[in-house]
Structure formats: structure tokens, C-alpha cells
Design goal:
- This protein is an all-alpha fold and about 160 residues long.
- Helix content is about 65%, strand content about 5%.
- It is built from 7 helices and 2 strands.
- The chain has a two-stranded antiparallel sheet with strand order 1-2.
- The longest helix has 24 residues, at about 115-140.
- The protein starts with a strand and ends in a 17-residue tail after the last helix.
């Protein structure tokens, strides 16, 4: 039946992680963070495991951006291919920021008086990573940071 991961068996954990992370990685879906997170929690997924798993997912996406590091992801070839495809929707800096946001929430979860809020704040921060990119794409911009008239990067 598999070892236990928290209150879930390894099999149940894998299913729940697939449900959660299969939806959350998509930029359009992550911007609807409250409904996604509520749906996941209603299915019994522990928010602490969720935020840690999401951080791992961002790490895997980052590894998938480079063919030399793709083999560091411990999944089947078909899944690696999906990761490689998904990873192209994110800049390297967005993935690094996503990992940092998730790591911060993971570390602070147990010490928080309101741990669910800790995860929700992390999801809002993750949403802000993609909001600027979505606005640029709508305006026909590139994935790179905007520049002012003198060519200096603006943030």
C-alpha cells in the first residue's frame, strides 16, 4: 500500500499532488489562487504539504528548462516531456522567485498563528509573478523586462 506521507499513503499523496500541481502550475489558473486553493483543501490536501509540493514543482520546472538538468527530475520520460513544455511558459527568474516564495511559506507555516493565511499570501505573491507577464503579452510585449527611453531596465 506504500509508506505514509503525513496522514496519506504514498499513493494518495501522489494523486492529490497531481490534482493540486497539475492545475496550479498554469499561469492563468494560478491567478485564480483562492478558488484553486480552496478546491484543493476541500479535497483534504494539507496546506503545508501543498506549499512544499508547489515549491518542488517550481524546482522541477526550473530543472526542465535546461536539457542538461532535465534528468535531475525523478519522473518518467512522458512526464519529463510535459515538464519541459510547461517550463517554457516561465522565465528562469519567475521560477526562482516561485521557489523562494514557496520556501518562505513552508518554513514559516508551523510558526504562524494563521498557517492557512501564510499559504494564501504565498499564492498571492505567486500570482503577482505572472500578472506582469500576462499584461505584457496582452500588449504585444516580450517576456523581457521593460526598458525606459534610455534603455535601462524598469521593474
Amino acid at each position: 500500500k506504500g509508506k505514509l506521507v503525513g496522514k496519506y499513503s504514498e499513493h494518495e499523496y501522489g494523486i492529490m499532488e497531481s490534482i493540486a500541481l497539475g492545475k496550479i502550475h498554469d499561469r492563468r489558473f494560478i491567478n485564480k489562487h483562492h478558488s484553486a486553493f480552496n478546491e484543493i483543501v476541500k479535497k483534504g490536501f494539507d496546506p503545508h504539504i501543498f506549499i512544499g509540493g508547489l515549491g518542488n514543482h517550481f524546482r522541477d520546472l526550473m530543472m526542465a528548462q535546461n536539457p542538461k538538468t532535465l534528468n535531475l527530475i525523478e519522473v518518467g520520460e512522458k512526464t519529463k516531456s510535459k515538464f519541459a513544455e510547461q517550463s517554457q511558459k516561465w522565465s528562469a527568474q519567475q521560477l526562482i522567485d516561485g521557489i523562494e516564495i514557496c520556501n518562505f511559506a513552508d518554513i514559516n507555516y508551523k510558526n504562524s498563528k494563521n498557517p492557512r493565511l501564510t499559504v494564501e499570501i504565498a499564492l498571492m505573491q505567486l500570482s503577482s509573478l505572472t500578472a506582469g507577464l500576462e499584461a505584457k503579452k496582452k500588449n504585444g510585449g516580450s517576456l523581457e523586462e521593460p526598458e525606459d527611453k534610455e534603455g535601462n531596465e524598469m521593474k
